[in-house]
Amino acid sequence: MKKTPNDIQQLGDRISELKRREAEARKDKKESEAAYASKVGFRIATEMLSGVVVGAAIGYLLDNVMQTKPWLLMVFMFFGGAAGVLNVYRFAKSEDKKRRSKTRG
Predict the structure, then answer these.
(1) Statement: residue 26 has pLDDT above 80
(2) How many Cα neighbours within 13 Å face the side chain of 67?
(3) Are residues 18 and 11 in contact, defined by beta-carbon separation less than 8 angstroms?
(4) Which of 9, 31, 59, 87 could bond to 72 as cystine, CB 3.0-4.6 Å?
(5) How far is residue 39's CA from residue 44's CA, in Å, rounded to a whole number?
(6) What is the pLDDT of residues 45-89, one digit of tens each?
(7) Helices 33-66 and 71-104, packing angle to 10 deg
């Protein structure tokens, strides 16, 4: 077994102590309702927008390749929107499950 130099050992001990203090400080700090609401709102908007944008991009590229303008663009925008709604639904279910588990325990 190799011997660790004292300065490296002291640095490791200091890092461990700082991590412990950080975890202790975060434990008692609650997230405000406004911060939580804005976080959820941005998440939902991002899910919806990204689904539509990705669907539109795929449809646009396929339309250019297959010369079917604008049909695939419209179809894939619809699929992207549906995927966005599905992602928001999954997120809402997971948040509801978290909320219910907090009220029980």
Answers:
(1) no
(2) 0
(3) no
(4) 59
(5) 9
(6) 999 999 999 999 999 999 999 999 999 999 999 999 999 999 999
(7) 160
**Alpha carbons within 13 A on the beta-carbon side of 37:** 3
Q: What DSSP string describes 67-103?
A: T-TTHHHHHHHHHHHHHHHHHHHHHHHHHHHHHHHHH
N-term to C-term CA, the chain:
46
* DSSP summary character for residue 105: -
Q: Which of 37, 52, 41 is nearest to 84 (CA)?
A: 52
Q: What is the pTM of this model?
A: 0.69
Query: CB-based burial of residue 50 (10 Å sphere; 0-12 exposed, 13-18 middle, 19+ buried)?
Result: middle
d(CA 13, CA 26): 20
CB 63 within 8 A of CB 38: no
Helix (H) or strand (E) holding 32: none
d(CA 7, CA 61): 58
